Amino acid sequence: MNEHKQYVTLGVADAVFAIPVARVQEILEPQPTTRMPRAPSDFLGMIDVRGQNIPVVDLRLRLEMPGAEDTKDTRILVLDVATKTGMRKIALRADRVFEVAELDEAVLEPPAEVGRGWRSDCIEGVGRRNGGFVMVFDLDLLFHTADLSGAQAAA
Predict the structure, then answer these.
(1) Do the beta carbons of residue 133 and residue 47 sit within 8 Å?
(2) pLDDT of residue 104
(3) 142-148 long-range contacts, Cβ below 8 Å, gap at least 24?
(4) Spatial contact of 122 and 4, defined as CB atoms under 8 Å apart
(5) Residue 85: exposure state from Cβ atoms within 10 A (0-12, 13-18, ≥19)
(6) How many helices (H) and strands (E) does the chain have?
(7) In the chain, which residues have pLDDT < 70?
(8) Under 8 Å between Cβ of 49 and 78
(9) Distance between CA 129 and CA 139 in Å, rounded?
(10) How many domains are there within the chain?
(11) Which DSSP letter does residue 73 get?
(12) pLDDT computed for residue 151 by the predictor
């Protein structure tokens, strides 16, 4: 029996990604961030979510894509992520959120090996949906090297 798992699908540039629903705490509209000194370029700053300080990471910049201005479709996803210091909430800025979709885990394929220039370690698998590809994130690996020490100290 194939196991179907629910994912939140989101877009960055022309790519479609997926995050397990169980790891998504909420989806917010864009809001101003408070920049932190000497922060990495993909760390946009902190937001307040019901009294909790949450670091915001720009997914475009994290994936080494060109940055983009917010649009009416831009969203911030508040996620539960395992970091070097334990589980913590981290927000991810994405160009848009599409839907909650079911993907069959049995048919997820490993990401393609294309050489040293492309880091696919944060991609758990690649599925197909609506005639296109959906890349499923391994959130813990996506943030494994995140330097959010300033954000963690502020939280």
Answers:
(1) no
(2) 81
(3) 142/62, 142/81, 143/57, 143/81, 143/82, 143/83, 143/90, 144/83, 144/84, 146/40, 146/43, 146/57, 146/83, 146/90, 147/40, 147/43, 148/43, 148/55, 148/57, 148/83, 148/90
(4) no
(5) exposed
(6) 3, 10
(7) 1-2, 113-121, 145-155
(8) yes
(9) 20
(10) 1
(11) T
(12) 46
CA–CA separation, 44 vs 36, rounded Å?
Answer: 8
Distance of CA 17 to the CA centre of its chain: 8
Question: How is residue 107 written in tokens?
Answer: 């048919």
Domain of residue 67 covers: 4-154
Give the strand order in the sheet containing 24-28. 24-28, 75-83, 86-94, 52-58, 43-49
Residue 119 belongs to domain with CATH number: 2.40.50.180
Q: Alpha-carbon distance 148 to 55, whole Å?
A: 8
